[in-house]
Amino acid sequence: MIQDFLNLDWDYYGPELWTAMGDTIYMVMWSFLLGGAIGLVLGFVLYTTRPGGIFANRVVNLAINVVVNLIRPIPFVILIAALQPLTIAVVGSGIGNTAVVFCMIWASTFAIARIVEQNLVSLDPGVIEAARAMGASRWRIVTTVMLPEALGPLILGYTFVIISLVDMSALAGIIGGGGIGNFAIVEGYNRFRPAVTWTAVIVVVVFVQALQLVGNWAARKVMRR
Amino acid sequence: MPMAAHTPDRKQLAPGRTAEGAPGEPVIVFDHVSRVFGGRSGEVTAVDDVSLTVHRGEVFGVIGFSGAGKSTLIRMINGLEKPTSGTVTVLGEEVSALSEAKLRPVRRRIGMVFQQFNLMHSRTVAGNVNYALATAGWPKARRRERVAELLEFVGLAEKAKHYPEQLSGGQKQRVGIARALAAEPEILLADEATSALDPSTTSEVLSVLRRVNEELGVTIVAITHEMEVIRSIADRVAVMDAGRVVESGRVFDLFSRTNHSADAASFVTTALKDRPNAEEVARIRRRTDGRLVMVSLRDAAAVSAVLGTAGQRGVGFEIVHGGVSATKDSAYGLLTVSLTGEETAVEDFLADLGRAGDVQEVQQ
User: Fold this and answer.
1) What is the pTM of this model?
2) I need a surface site. Which of A55, B4, B307, B328 has the fewest CB within 10 A?
């Protein structure tokens, strides 16, 4: 088994692996940043427009809930296919890493919206009431009470999402994207080279572990526990 | 202490307790206020046609069982709740008619402390107090000094850099008080401020509240279900039951009265435990065949003087129930005594007793 790894032509696979890792980081990073930002806003809108919320608005709340519930259950591989016309219109091409990023933004936005909402729901409403009683404006409450008070759990939620983005990015190959997933299938599985596939597995495991460690560390630092 | 510099002469600010007893100007006025909550299971009237006035400088207590509407009532003062009908006027503004944005400047003149403290866990003790100042628009340069001054006032200067979860309940509530006082409010609302605390920390927090009123001249509205709170800090009290104010007046009068309205009686009796219930009367009856009367100690000295003459007049008396407690500024109590002796002597004795305090026959 170990011999299989050593016998691989690393002069070929080395650079290939580097490129694949670069592609994965590109896809995960951009979809995380953009989906994370849009999802954060949507999550706050979902939470604050609930009945009794500081921006309570039944229509807006219901509308966003419906959209989130419609898109979230679509399996990612189907979402990629279904979004094709939109992807071509927006990105200019239906294939490649950037097209994959576009699809991943859709998936991550709605996943993050729910995670943000769920973490905000567990906030102590008394703290928000105290800020209102002090005469804080609603925007001020969002940025200086809700966000900092929910930050620890939010970091853990975002860590969960970034790891599922690594998972999604592995499907990039079906529309011509690269990344570790594509590397494992094209170079390993399709060519009957299990050692190559296993190399990809090891890289992904290390990558995900690193992300989880950073997430846990940051959350612990914020929550001081 | 620099804080005192912000505080005009206490007598001007809080004439509610001057010797003349003249009340200060009204700062909170409820005028026929009702609040109805609509729900799937029908409507609930949390506050039912309440009219009351709180004067500058006084400590006004609202007491009642949980669910009596006290929380809704106090939240209408700073507009956290809106009345369904009637008006609430605070510091000259009709808060019941103001929008959320227009309420903000009024809220900055009203501090609030909560049963569950409601401190931000992501900020230190100093950070929590500082937040209130920043919200009220204090310039950064003045905040630091003000935070130190406030923490000094509540005795937590050395805890400034701690986080709320590192504090005891009583300490958290003192931070809550410091935060509520940060922007120099004229009114402090205490929403069951001591209900989550044990008896010893309760008295620690109550003494801070008393100082807030006496040293800083802040008008306090305290809602509670604990008679202890009313007893130790309030000047006037309203008893709430099922959304209505069933009795109100000076604390001493309420506590030393024997003739409560039917609604108020149930609460006051339960809370004070100052009069024997039917079971206790039966037990007392088994021991003594004397005439049972309750005497309220409006003037403890006068009542004592009359009781002291019992022996020479041929009247035997025995205290069978009750006791004496101290309110903020006087002693009150309700004694149940059993009297024996010549019928006329007892009548005569009761007449004298009636002049010293309120006397009421115990129902057989």
Assistant:
1) 0.81
2) B4
